[in-house]
Design goal:
By secondary structure, the protein is an alpha+beta fold. It contains 32 helices and 11 strands. The longest helix has about 60 residues, at about 75-130.
Length: about 700
C-alpha cells in the first residue's frame, strides 16, 4: 500500500512498512481500498470509527495514529473480546473434528455389520451353486411352506448367526431384501466374475495354452458350444478352466465360430501362446471343423489341431452309415425308437414291466450311443415285440400310441431290419472297446493316440469280413424274422441264395466303408508324434535309442518355442536314464511334470516340453463332462434366469475346486462384497470411510 502527496511543488510517495504488522498485532489492511483497519474493532466493535468503517490512510502519521487507537478504551474492550472469541473458535474446531471422527466410526461400525451379514447370502449362493440345487420354489410368498432353497437356506443361516447380525438384519430388511432374486443373481455374477479374473491372471502368467470347444443341445434343444482352456499354471499344475456356454443357434458356420472363439480368447495373446486346438462338434459340425481349425492356424501357426479321438470314431461310424442308404434308413428308425417311450409314463411303465430295463437314449452328438439301443433291441427282441403288442391290444391306449406301435412292430417283422440289428450289434461289440479306451480321461499317451490300438480295431473288423461270419449273422436274423417265401427286390422275386448274396454284399460294403473311414479320420495322428517323448513306458528304450524322429517332429511343430534343441536333447537323455522317471505309470504321467517343476531352473527345456505336451488335449475332451452339469443346472433353474446366469451359475459348480481354493487362499468374501458394492442402486453401505 502507498499514498502519493505534494509539498512545495514536490511529489512524494509514502509506502506501508511491513514491520508495522509485527509492532501492532491487531493491524490489518486492504490493498483494494489502500487503507488500514483494526481487526478486533472490525470484527467486534459496534461503534463506528475510522479503524473499523472508513479506514486509516494517513501513512505519514501511522505510528501516532496506531498508538492513539491502541490506547483507546474501545480498542482494549474489542481486543479482549476478540481474544476470547479466538479461544472459542479453537474449541469449535475440536468439536467438529471429534464429531467427524465419531460419525466415521459409527458409519464404519454399521458397514462392518453390513459386510458380516452379506457373507450369509454369498454362502447360500455358493452352496446351492456347488451342489447344483434349485434356487427358487413355485411359491415364494411368506405363507408358503417351501419358499425355495435360497430363501430357506438364507433364513436358516440368519437364524444361527450371532445375535448382533440377527438384530442388524431386522433394522435393514426394510431397505435391503437379501433373499430377492435380483440380489441372488447379482451375487452369482460377482462370484463368476471373480473366478474369471483369477483365470485371466493365471493364463496371463502361463507360457502357453490350448483350447477345447464342443457343442451340445441343451434341454430346450438350443444349439450351443462351450469353451475349455487348458494350461499348466505357475505352480506347475495342469488345469482346465471353463470359460462359458455360448449360443450358436443363429450361425454355425466356420466364420461365425471362429469369431466367437477368437473374441473370447483375444485377451490371452492367443496368436503367440495358443499351442493346441480341439474342436469336437462330432457329426453335426463335421463340414465346418476343418475350415475352423485352418482359420485358427492362420492366426496362430503353432496351434496344432487335435481332434478328439473318441469323436473321430463317432465320425467314422456316422459317415460310414450315411454313405449307405439302407443304413441311413435303419438308423433313422433306431434313433426314433427311444423317443416313443421317453416322456410317456404309461408306455415306459409297460416297457419296464415286460423288458425290466429302461430304453437307452439316443444322443445326437454321440453316434456310439446308438450302440446301446442296438444292443437292447438285439438282446430283448421278443420282449420288445411283446411291449408293442401289449400297447396295441390295450383298450386304454390312445390312437397315437396304437398307430406308432403298429409302425414299429412292422419293423420287427421285417427281415432286413432284423439282419441289420445283428450286423451292427457285431460291429459295435468291436468299436465299443476302442471307444471306451479313447474316452478315458487321462493323459494316457498310448491309449489316447496310439495307432496300434486303432489298427487292431481295423484288423478285427476286417477279420469279420468273411462268408462264414456273415452266415452266422444271417441265420440269427432269419430266426428273429423268417425270410418271406416270395421275397421281392423291386419287380424280381429272389431265391434264398440270391437273398443271401444280396445282403452279404451289403455286409461287406458296411465293413469296407467303416475300415476306409478309419483310414481317413485317423491318418494324421503322426502329426503329433512328438507327444511320445513323454511316454514313460519307453524311457528305458529311449535311453539306448534316442527318439530322434519325435524330436524332429517337435521342431517342425514348434520352431519358435524350442530354439535350443541340443540342450533339450541332453536334458531328455538325462531323464530317460533316470530310474525315478521310468517307474511312473502312464495314468500318473503328471507326476513327471511335478518332479520337473522342482528342477525347472536346471531342466528348463525339458520342463517346457513336458508342460507343452500335457497342455495339448491329446486324448478325449473333458469339456463334455460339463454338459451333464449344464443339464442339471438348467433343470433346476427358475425361468427368470438369463443365459448369462446359466453360464455363471454353471461356472460355480464346474469350478468348485478352484472356488474352494480361492475361499481359503484369497480375501474372497471381502472381494465379492466389494464387487457387489460397486454395482448401481445399492441401498446398503458396504465400503468403509477413511
Amino acid at each position: 500500500m502507498e499514498k502519493m502527496g505534494r509539498a512545495k511543488d514536490k511529489v512524494y510517495v509514502r509506502k506501508f512498512r511491513n514491520e508495522w504488522y509485527s509492532e501492532y498485532k491487531w493491524l490489518c489492511g486492504s490493498i483494494y481500498l489502500n487503507k488500514l483497519f483494526c481487526m478486533p474493532c472490525l470484527i467486534v466493535s459496534v461503534k463506528s470509527s475510522v479503524w473499523n468503517k472508513g479506514g486509516f490512510n494517513n501513512f505519514g502519521n501511522v505510528t501516532r495514529g496506531c498508538r492513539n487507537h491502541e490506547g483507546s478504551l474501545e480498542h482494549i474492550r474489542c481486543a479482549l473480546m476478540f481474544a476470547e472469541l479466538r479461544k472459542n473458535l479453537s474449541t469449535i474446531e475440536d468439536d467438529l473434528t471429534d464429531n467427524s471422527r465419531l460419525y466415521i466410526k459409527q458409519f464404519n461400525d454399521n458397514v462392518l455389520l453390513n459386510r458380516r451379514f452379506m457373507q450369509l447370502p454369498i454362502r447360500a449362493v455358493i452352496y446351492l451353486g456347488r451342489q447344483e440345487l434349485a434356487f427358487w420354489g413355485h411359491n415364494e410368498s411368506e405363507c408358503s411352506d417351501n419358499r425355495g432353497n435360497f430363501m430357506e437356506l438364507l433364513d436358516m443361516f440368519i437364524s444361527i448367526s450371532p445375535a448382533d447380525i440377527q438384530e442388524h438384519y431386522k433394522k435393514i430388511s426394510s431397505v435391503f431384501s437379501a433373499n430377492s432374486k435380483t440380489i441372488a443373481n447379482e451375487l452369482i455374477d460377482c462370484i463368476s466374475d471373480y473366478i474369471d479374473q483369477y483365470v485371466d491372471k493365471e493364463i496371463e502368467e502361463c507360457n502357453y495354452f490350448s483350447i477345447q470347444v464342443d457343442d451340445s443341445t441343451d434341454i430346450v434343444q438350443k444349439p450351443q458350444c462351450n469353451i475349455i482352456i487348458r494350461y499348466v499354471n505357475r505352480a506347475g499344475k495342469l488345469v482346465e478352466r471353463f470359460l462359458g456356454f455360448f449360443n450358436v443357434s443363429s450361425d454355425r458356420t466356420a466364420d461365425a465360430l471362429f469369431n466367437l472363439v477368437t473374441k473370447r480368447i483375444e485377451k490371452y495373446d492367443y496368436r503367440s501362446k495358443l499351442v493346441g486346438q480341439c474342436f469336437d462338434w462330432a457329426s453335426v459340425m463335421a463340414g465346418q471343423v476343418n475350415d475352423l481349425q485352418s482359420k485358427m492356424k492362420n492366426e496362430a501357426p503353432q496351434a496344432v489341431f487335435v481332434h478328439c479321438a473318441a469323436h473321430r470314431l463317432n465320425l467314422v461310424l456316422q459317415q460310414s452309415c450315411n454313405n449307405i442308404l439302407k443304413c441311413r434308413i435303419f438308423f433313422a428308425n433306431v434313433t426314433g425308437f427311444p423317443s416313443f417311450f421317453h416322456h410317456f409314463a404309461k408306455r415306459t411303465h409297460i416297457a419296464n414291466t415286460i423288458i425290466k430295463r429302461r430304453i437307452p437314449t439316443s444322443v445326437l452328438t454321440c453316434w456310439t450311443s446308438n450302440s446301446n439301443i442296438v444292443k437292447v433291441i438285439n438282446n430283448e427282441w421278443d420282449s420288445i415285440k411283446e411291449v408293442f403288442i401289449e400297447i396295441i391290444n390295450d383298450i386304454t391306449s390312445d390312437q397315437t400310441s396304437v398307430r406308432q406301435s403298429t409302425a414299429i412292430l412292422n419293423l420287427f417283422n421285417d427281415f432286413e431290419f432284423a439282419l441289420l440289428i445283428g450286423i451292427f450289434s457285431e460291429i459295435f461289440s468291436i468299436t465299443d472297446i476302442l471307444f471306451d479306451m479313447l474316452q478315458k480321461h487321462s493323459l494316457n499317451i498310448n491309449y489316447g493316440m496310439s495307432q496300434t490300438q486303432i489298427k487292431n480295431t481295423q484288423e478285427l473288423l476286417n477279420e469279420k469280413r468273411n462268408e462264414k461270419n456273415f452266415k452266422e449273422i444271417f441265420e440269427l436274423g432269419s430266426i428273429k424274422v423268417p425270410i418271406p417265401v416270395n421275397y421281392r427286390d423291386g419287380q424280381k422275386t429272389l431265391t434264398a441264395d440270391e437273398i443271401f448274396e444280396k445282403y452279404k454284399i451289403l455286409y461287406y460294403e458296411i465293413l469296407d466303408t467303416i475300415s476306409g473311414q478309419i483310414d481317413v479320420q485317423f491318418k494324421d495322428l503322426d502329426k503329433i508324434h512328438f507327444i511320445t517323448l513323454m511316454d514313460t513306458t519307453r524311457f528305458e528304450e529311449y535311453s539306448k535309442n534316442f527318439p530322434t524322429e519325435a524330436l524332429n517332429n517337435l521342431n517342425n511343430c514348434f520352431p519358435n518355442i524350442f530354439s535350443d534343441l541340443p540342450r533339450l536333447k541332453k536334458e531328455l537323455y538325462f531323464i530317460y536314464n533316470d530310474e525315478k522317471y521310468r517307474n511312473i505309470e502312464l495314468d500318473q504321467i503328471l507326476e513327471v511334470v511335478d518332479i520337473l517343476y522342482e528342477n525347472r531352473d536346471i531342466l528348463k527345456e525339458a520342463y517346457k516340453l513336458f508342460c507343452l505336451i500335457v497342455t495339448i488335449p491329446s486324448t478325449s475332451i473333458s469339456v463334455e463332462r460339463s454338459f451333464s452339469c449344464l443339464k442339471r443346472t438348467k433343470t433346476y433353474l427358475h425361468n427368470s434366469m438369463t443365459e448369462d446366469n446359466v453360464t455363471n451359475l454353471a461356472k460355480i459348480s464346474i469350478e468348485k475346486e478352484l472356488l474352494n481354493e480361492l475361499i481359503i487362499t484369497e480375501p474372497f468374501y471381502d472381494d465379492i462384497i466389494d464387487k457387489f458394492a460397486a454395482l448401481p442402486d445399492r441401498r446398503m453401505h458396504l465400503i468403509f470411510k477413511k
